[in-house]
Amino acid sequence: MAARTIADVPSPSVTRRAGPQDACPGALRVHQAADGGLARVRVPGGLLSGRQWQVLVSAAAELGNGHLELTSRGNLQLRGLGTDAAESLAGRLTDAGLLPSLTHERVRNLLASPLSGRDGGGLADVRPLIAEFDQALTSRPALAELSGRFLFALDDGRADVLAIGPDIAVTATSSTTVRLLLAGRYAGAPVPIGSAVELMLAAAEAFLAERRAQGSDAWRLAELTDGPARVAARLGLTTSGLPHPTGPAPAPGPLRQSDGRQALVLGIPLGSLNTAQAGVLSAPRLILTPWRSVVLPGLGTAAAAVLLNAGAAQGLITDGTDPLNGVTACTGRPGCASALADVRADAIAAHAVAGHAVAAHAVAGHQAEPIAGPVHWSGCSRRCGRPAGTVIDVVATGDGYRVSSAGRSTDVGGSSAQLRVALCDSSNLVAAR
Fold first, then answer.
1. What is the value of pTM for the model shown?
2. Which residue of 104, 207, 395, 399 has the fewest CB atoms within a 10 Å radius of its CB?
3. Domain check: are 234 and 257 in the same one?
4. CA–CA separation, 406 vs 265, rounded Å?
């Protein structure tokens, strides 16, 4: 069957909001940035086959600037797309099974605990729910009205993806039961895991109904007046007052699976992969995470060792001591017209050790100080791509940067030395909380 292109996209049969329209990029809605077109490909649960990965790598090289960017929701972005690249990209994605719905492609934002069912760390295996959820979501026309920022999550009980702040999630309470979470708050009692998908989608429909009832332009559940409580009431449920606790992200490096094989977690420096780095990740299966890392599961010991060494040689993050572990950044200059600085170059200079292979911007002789907690570098006050939770913010001001954490901000110049001092001070504030 011939590949579909954007010319084949039908008009969704949904009611559009009268208020501000969601400009979130998609695979079909390409955003025009200073460096060319930007397309965002949704990857529910972060699951990719090796073939799908190769399609994305080839598309980035042949249609864009050669880089793949991981987002804070476990999706992928291609940048530098030419003006005539959109149709070719849509066809490639469709043929690879990465664009199963033309009307719902921007709302397929689903996180899932990336190690679920593999390392014995969760209470239940949520992997079978990923495809079920995606198929059910895309079969409901009304849900195409959701914002491209609306986020779902399937948590296996370890609470890792709950730290990303999903609008609607379920978390495992046993091997056979889950509990609904609305903007981080429990709603109702545990239900059988087989009811998880229907319950989540019913909550999404209740969100849309409540938004219409309030006459609201809210994109996220927490933006609605009494959103969690009112959505729960529409489902005949009540919410608890306290948010669910969250768990840590999987650490970079190898780990042993329950079946005796290994899974390899490789961090992506500043969330951006060049062609050589992407080639290291060629494997039968890949799992993208919202922490800008990739999990390669089901590896033999020898294969894992080879991939670990190859990743290190290409500047990927292979252990938690890497100075760029937990450091993220927006595109910055020159890719974004709104940016006030080349934040990626400045971030690497401020964090990276001498000789780090991530980029030519690494500054020789500059040893990075240990920084506690995630750090996000932004080229402007919009802080695009900022991770959820407690983060040290480094925001370009035009005259330098404003470094903020724990309610305190410091304006500094743009030199690496000044920035390192400010980062260490902020890190100490975070560690003391």
1. 0.90
2. 399
3. no
4. 29
